[in-house]
Amino acid sequence: xxxxxxxxxxxxxxxxxxxxxxxxxxxxxxxxxxxxxxxxxxxxxxxxxxxxxxxxxxxxxxxxxxxxxxxxxxxxxxxxxxxxxxxxxxxxxxxxxxxxxxxxxxxxxxxxxxxx
Length: 116
Fold this sequence. Notes:
This protein is mainly α. It is 64% helix and 0% strand. The mean pLDDT is 94.
C-alpha cells in the first residue's frame, strides 16, 4: 500500500476516457456498480445511525468552538468515548443523546449546574 497526501489545489481528475465511460452509464448501472464494489459495501442502518449521531455531536462541539478534549472536559464526558461517537465507531446511548439535547437547548443551565 502506498501512502500519499492529496494536494487540495490540484485534485486528481478523470481522464477523458473515464469521464466518457461514466457519462454513458445510466443511474441504475452506477447504483449496481456501487453495490458490487467489494471494497466499499453499502452502509447498514446501524452504521448510518452512528454516523448521524456522531455528526450531531461534532456539529454541537464545533458550534462552541471547542476541541474534543476541551468539550469533553467542559461537559465531563470521557474524551475517548466522545472521539468514538464522533467517528461513528460507537452509538451513544439514550442518556448521552439526552445530555446532548440539553446542552443544545439549555447550554447556560448546564454550565451553571456543572459550575456548582
